[in-house]
């Protein structure tokens, strides 16, 4: 989904997970659980994406881990690995996106990000990513205790970034997030791959 037509864009706002970097809980736990059926069961019942999203919403990581270990004591070590080895759930960059970010930066386009990301995990992750040195403000849901697609996080971001929503292009892989931003007047791109994004950015005269 692309929207907003030919309206002027003064800044580009990226999501992070599955737009700039890959994210998959399986990438870590496939190293720790040999049996494929047990791996599927663990990811469906114990360390699930839905449970993880509590961290994105601002719940303290230590509290989440203690509670889950009490619920699944037989998996206590694996739940601890989730907290200690979270960076291994980010196996690498999404192909092509970093090059587009560098091209936008080279043209002087202001860059920002809104990410659903746990505060503790962001503190682990951010130092590993010099690409974010090209960005201005980055709104992290776990720090703000509000997640996309809540309109409040977009209002906070617009205030912090200093541009009107109609003058910003928001890029996200999640349909609900894209629709929420569009409803608030942002120009949007529903991310599928860097090649499609490149065509959209070129069509808007941004690269």
UniProtKB/TrEMBL annotation:
It comes from Pelagerythrobacter marinus. Keywords: Hydrolase. One of its GO terms (molecular function) is hydrolase activity. This is HAD-IA family hydrolase. Pfam families: Hydrolase (PF00702). InterPro entries: HAD-like_sf, HAD-SF_hydro_IA, HAD_sf. PANTHER family: ALPHA-D-GLUCOSE 1-PHOSPHATE PHOSPHATASE, FLAVIN MONONUCLEOTIDE HYDROLASE 1, CHLOROPLATIC.
